[in-house]
Amino acid sequence: MPEAKPARIVVRFPRYASRSWRVRCLASLAAAGHVDVTPVSGPTLPDPVDLILDLSGETFDPSQLTLPRLGYWTFLHGDEPERIAPGLQEYVAGGRAAYARLVRLDGPDRGTVLKEGSVKTVGPSLAATRQRLLEAIVDWPGQLLKEALEQKKVAKLPTVRLRQRRALSHLLLRIALPAAWVRNILQRAAQKITREHWAVGMIDAPVHQVCESFDPDKIRWLPAPPNGFLADPFGVTQADGTVVVLAEAVSWQDGRGRIVAFEARPDGTLTPREEIFGFTTHASYPQLIEHDGDIYCIPETLVQRRVQLFRATAFPYRWVADSVLLENFAGADATVCRHEGRWWLFVGNHDDQDEAKLFLFHAADLRGPWLPHAANPVKCDLRSARPAGPLFVLDGALYRPAQDCSVTYGGAVVINRIDRLTPEDFSEQPVKRLAPAAEGPYPHGLHTLSGAGNVTLVDGKRHVSPATFLAAPWNWFGQHLNRKLSRRNPSA
């Protein structure tokens, strides 16, 4: 029986793509299966051809759209998708996210989205933003080609309209670049001197009900520390209705996060917050796991460059180090769940766009060994990648809360439904977005959704003016001086 002919792939590269980027893209395509990949630069194509991968952004011949059996693929960029240089549209608009879509063109002005994502822009540098986006999407064509050749079943894909920009509009976009550069520098400076104030809140409903009918006005906000804030709440509800909460507490004085525990009692009272781990470095996101009668915690400790499991000996105030799950990995917001007999660890990598990229690991046992997913990073999207709380099951489907950081860090929580979860495959779809109340006390962010029995814990953000932040050391000095005077003169 004669061997089947390889799939014929032709590729047009953009002028701005580096040689190393082209080599990596070609290698990814070659690894997709039985293929013959040919780079081309002009309008002439070899015959026959199974896929046209046009990454150039140049004008194209519409008659070529129906020639290959796998279609005519191209990248679209921008919040309003068009065939334009990566990051250019967002740079001029001053956006925080730069978008990319790999599309199969169905006509000159419409297409089917095969894959999409976004990265965080590099404020004053269009070149750095472009490089970051290109690095994130370089393997997309090869990954999608492999799935197409294997004829994998996929969910119904969305369609998109291409923005058609005239020559004058292109010219005006380029003319706006110097003004955008100045604006982006000033915008970045303003962000540097603005601080975020987070608070923990409670909703009297289980997490699945909160997701079905989220109402930010039903959040009961807990008192914030006078010289700092609370964030990243996780909890366990006890038999008497008391909710034991672990959270990140940040002090204005040193800006370092500490893991604290306190109890929210049924009568509405709170016990004093108590630091429980005593790390000398920043710690946050203390995910709680109940397994085989024990309670475990995985606090985020980026500086230590490990993801470590702790076990409670007297919950919630005494803990011992149990095992290291990931070594030499600066894990951000590590979130563990058990699903269909296997353990899964969803985490960002602080060394590699932790707000935009999602890494996945799996193990047969909670203590490991933990193996990396075959498709790491399994997702790159500033809108719905970074973990935002424990996963949960609803109507037999697994759901994963994630952060939407496209406008601001931790701006909202996006609920993703996981459709495929194996050591080789992963896919999820955003199904709902939970945003803070625009007129509420914390209108600028919501980045944790954590179920604790019949209660759901959240946190909210408001931006603190530079004057408030700069006054904090003086407030601390005044309080410190008052304490010293009180000790010297108790009658004062």
Helix and strand arrangement:
Layout: E1 7-12, H1 19-30, E2 35-39, E3 51-54, E4 72-77, H2 88-93, E5 97-107, E6 110-120, H3 126-137, H4 140-149, E7 159-161, H5 167-175, H6 177-192, E8 195-203, H7 207-212, E9 220-221, E10 228-237, E11 243-251, E12 257-264, E13 274-275, E14 284-291, E15 294-300, E16 306-314, E17 318-327, E18 331-339, E19 342-349, E20 357-363, E21 371-372, E22 379-380, E23 392-394, E24 397-404, E25 412-421, E26 426-434, E27 449-452, E28 455-464, H8 466-488
Parallel strand pairs: 1-2, 1-3, 3-4
Antiparallel strand pairs: 4-5, 5-6, 6-7, 8-9, 8-28, 10-11, 11-12, 12-13, 14-15, 15-16, 16-17, 18-19, 19-20, 20-21, 20-22, 23-24, 24-25, 25-26, 27-28
DSSP helix fraction: 10-25%
* Strand arrangement, major sheet: 2-1-3-4-5-6-7
Strand content: 35-45%
In this structure, how is the largest beta sheet organized? 7 strands, mixed
Number of domains: 2
Rg to the nearest angstrom?
Answer: 25 Å
From the helix content, strand content and strand pairing, which structural class follows?
alpha+beta
Oligomer: single chain
Question: pLDDT below 50 for ≥5 consecutive residues: which ranges?
Answer: 467-492
Provide a short characterization of the protein structure.
With 492 residues, the protein is an alpha+beta fold. The protein is built from 8 helices and 28 strands. The C terminus is likely disordered.
Describe the structure in your own words.
With 492 residues, the chain is an alpha+beta fold. It folds into 2 domains: 7-189, Rossmann fold; 197-324 and 388-463, no CATH class. 19% of the residues lie in helices and 39% in strands. The protein is built from 8 helices and 28 strands. It has helices spanning 19-30, 88-93, 126-137, 140-149, 167-175, 177-192, 207-212, 466-488; strands at 7-12, 35-39, 51-54, 72-77, 97-107, 110-120, 159-161, 195-203, 220-221, 228-237, 243-251, 257-264, 274-275, 284-291, 294-300, 306-314, 318-327, 331-339, 342-349, 357-363, 371-372, 379-380, 392-394, 397-404, 412-421, 426-434, 449-452, 455-464. The chain has a 7-stranded mixed beta sheet with strand order 2-1-3-4-5-6-7. Strands 18, 19, 20, 21 and 22 form a 5-stranded antiparallel beta sheet that branches. The chain has a 4-stranded antiparallel beta sheet with strand order 9-8-28-27. Strand 11 (243-251) and strand 12 (257-264) form a beta hairpin. Helix 1 (19-30) packs parallel to helix 4 (140-149). It is globular, with a radius of gyration of 25 Å. The chain starts with 6 loop residues before the first strand and ends with a helix.
